[in-house]
Design brief:
5-stranded mixed sheet, alpha+beta, about 55% helix, 4 helices
Length: about 130
């Protein structure tokens, strides 16, 4: 089972894709890429989310909303076996449902591994410097 987790960086989102099966992560990435939620690569992550490996993509609110809109529209077409020419009210309805899907994604606290690494190295350098002056 694939799970999506979101980290909000203001103007961009880091969307984590987590699953025990790496192929499922790849398929979810292809779905996001084909529906233009991202134009970038799938990045491997050293993080485990709920015990499962996770990869991530970069996206933004507009692209992610459009992705969920397209998914919902596709589900509607398959379920009712017709095209979505229902007019602007129906499109507004789908856009609101897409926005709710984004709100429903589990949020991860922002983890900035680069800062952690820099501070870790900085602390190490301070310890070395401190030892040197003793």
């Amino acid at each position: 089972m694939v799970q999506l987790f979101l980290q909000d960086y203001g103007t961009v989102y880091k969307l984590f894709i987590s699953s025990p099966n790496p192929k499922d992560i790849e398929y979810q990435y292809f779905s996001l890429y084909n529906r233009e939620a991202t134009s970038g690569d799938l990045y491997s992550s050293e993080y485990l989310i709920e015990g499962n490996p996770a990869s991530f993509i970069w996206t933004n609110k507009k692209k992610l909303t459009q992705y969920f809109y397209n998914v919902l529209e596709n589900e509607f077409c398959l379920k009712f076996n017709r095209e979505t020419d229902e007019g602007p009210k129906f499109k507004d309805f789908l856009m609101k449902k897409a926005a709710k899907k984004i709100e429903g994604l589990q949020r991860l606290r922002t983890i900035d591994s680069v800062k952690t690494k820099i501070y870790g190295d900085f602390n190490y350098l301070c310890e070395v410097k401190y030892d040197y002056f003793e």
